[in-house]
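Much of our argument rests on the idea that a fold can be written as discrete symbols. In the encoding step, the backbone of a single protein was reduced to a row of integers, each denoting a local shape. This step matters because it turns folding into a mapping between discrete strings. For completeness, the protein is quoted in full, as a sequence line and a line of structure tokens:
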Amino acid sequence: MIEAILIEILGALDVPVFVMFPDSMPQGNFIVLDRIGMGKTNHITSYEMAIQSYGSTALDAATLNELVIETMENAIADDRFARIHLNNSQMQTDTTRKLNRYQSTFEIVMM
């Protein structure tokens, strides 16, 4: 499951990583994963993932987002991945919860 792999990889950033927004508000910086698509062709699976970086301040969220992008770029060295492509990265303030958030979307092709 891609979420378990990404929790393992992004866990190296030493911030909590969640598959869903947690019921209780975490303190400080954290990451939320969201699978926004999946496809399969000739037994090769690809995923579209939104990785949301939350921070105590807008600068913290932006910094965490940059670390997420760098970590994902370096993850291509992992034999489980055939391709990791950054599709988009932007500030996307969570207006419902009034939280600082950046979101990066990736296309991930598994081996």
